[in-house]
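pls read this stuff:
=====
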Amino acid sequence: MCLGIPGQVVGMIDGYGDQLALVDVAGEHRRVNVGMLPEETFRPGDWVIIHMGFVVEKTDAAGAEAALHGLELMGRGRDIEDVDDDRPAADLRREWADVFGGARQDHQHRGA
């Protein structure tokens, strides 16, 4: 599993072998390489998951939201006993497993 950041395609950048896209990531426009997914086409509005400047997955709004939620969970730190949340730590651990376990299973099913 890799750490993936969701973003929404703004448009493709001319040149560069049609491998660069301009993607909105949390309100900032970033140039990212789409060359790892040569079978995909990218249009404005498409959601992608980015790792180290490369698009590693094309997703939908729900997938982007799940990735963002996972990042937010990670930002809580390792000691989830101290999280300012009304849910028991066991529920948070289960949620973490659901978010990242499901992402890992999807990744494995795609042959990656």
